[in-house]
Amino acid sequence: MNTDKQLEVLISYLETNKIFYRENYSLKYETYFKMGGKVKCFITPQSYDKFKQAVIFLQSNHINYKVIGFTSNIILFDEIEYSVILSPKNLTLLEIQDNVVQVEAGYSLQDFVRVVAILNNSEGYEGLEGIPASIGGAIVMNAGAYGHDISDNLISVECIDKNNQVIILEKKDCHFRLRNSIFRRSGNYVILKAKFKLKNGNKDLIAKNIEKFHIARHLYQDFVYPNLGSMIVVRDDAYKLILSENLLYSTIFWILKYGLKNPVSKFILRKRPNNIVFNKLLFFYLKYKKHILLKYKLSPKSLNILINDGSVSAQEIVNYIFLLNDLLENKCHLENELVIEPAYKINPEFETTLNIIIDRLNNQEKNENSTNYKS
Question: Is there a catalytic annotation at residue 230?
Fold first, then answer.
């Protein structure tokens, strides 16, 4: 936990060096999920050099900080007042030369896809359309969809390590795997920029794929409530996996599946696709077979989408995340990050929930440490 003295020194340094920042800034409406407490110092350096300067100062002075991107995959809690948060959102330079694109960490992934895929006819990026992330954040979690990962065409990543050295990691050194990388796992690097290769493709086909994926995304993603997209990565139908434990509920599931997910039904429901019926089936299954009364309001689109309806509590969110993980018997990978540090002040009523988070994250880390990374 950072001390008041450290924060005073930091503010003085930012002022002297004219690095953009805000004090006692409310994160709630800055985040994608529209949740989050205040932060004592929210640093948004206005350039590559200023960003690098800020990172080096923070690390040299042993000031704990958290780097966030577009926050489309992280949960910050109203009950936590954070100390120092650093954002690369002003790092937006993009350059293309000799079929190589170099882009800074704060550039929008959605804009990046349109620049490289549509304007430069480069294939292999189509599945990334619609992912509301920064380049840096997308690299950290190896963002992807529809068979495309951001690491597929990555050449290298420029970053700062814990020794304040600016280094370049080649793709093989980033240890990418499903929604993970060395950046997410170790926390030893801060991404500055990255290089990607351009591979010439058919412009019309690229455009058709982007349109196809965009339509498909609207079928299963929630665009009404503030949300974080898919909460977990699971290779099969999550409803099927959970309900398959019970013959009765599994049978009902398949009857509903064939009745509501056939081509005719999909066409009829195309203007408002949803999984409300399957949510109700899950609710009854949990209540009568698992003796769990689900308080969290599920997204009409999917049990896999975490939504904020304005009334949900932090405890309900945390309970639901870990409940889903337990129901799937760890056959999934949690995409969303629960941010609990660096904390300046914590609401005492949040302590129990915080302890649950810490215990579960520690167990998750142990499980991940037992798995070898793939290059």
Answer: yes
Count how many domains the chain has: 3
Q: Which helix (H) or strand (E) holds 241?
A: helix 238-243
Q: Which of the following is catalytic: 72, 156, 179, 181? A: 179
Beta bridge partners of 166: 160
Active-site residue flag, 360: no
DSSP 242: H
pLDDT tens string 165-182: 999 999 999 999 988 999
Catalytic residue among 156, 181, 230, 302: 230
CATH code for position 58:
3.30.43.10
Contact 175, 188 (CB under 8 A): no
Cβ distance 260 to 269 under 8 Å?
A: yes
State pTM to two decimals.
0.91
If asked whether residues 126 and 197 sit together in one domain, one would say: yes
State the Cα–Cα distance between residues 244 and 236, nearest whole angstrom.
Answer: 12
Q: How many Cβ atoms sit within 10 Å of the Cβ of residue 267?
A: 9
77 part of a folded domain: yes
Give the domain range for residue 356.
Answer: 1-90+342-375
- The alpha carbon of residue 124 and the mean position of all alpha carbons in its chain are separated, in whole angstroms, by 21
Residue 94 three-state SS: strand
Start-to-end CA span in the chain (Å): 34
Whether 220 maps to a domain, the answer reads no
Question: In CATH, what number is assigned to the domain containing residue 112?
Answer: 3.30.465.10
Q: Is residue 242 in a domain?
A: yes
Residue 115 one-letter amino acid: V
Report yes or no: 1 and 344 within 8 Å, Cβ to Cβ.
yes
Residue 364 in domain = yes
Q: What is the pLDDT of residues 26-82, one digit of tens each?
A: 999 999 999 999 999 999 999 999 999 999 999 999 999 999 999 999 999 999 999
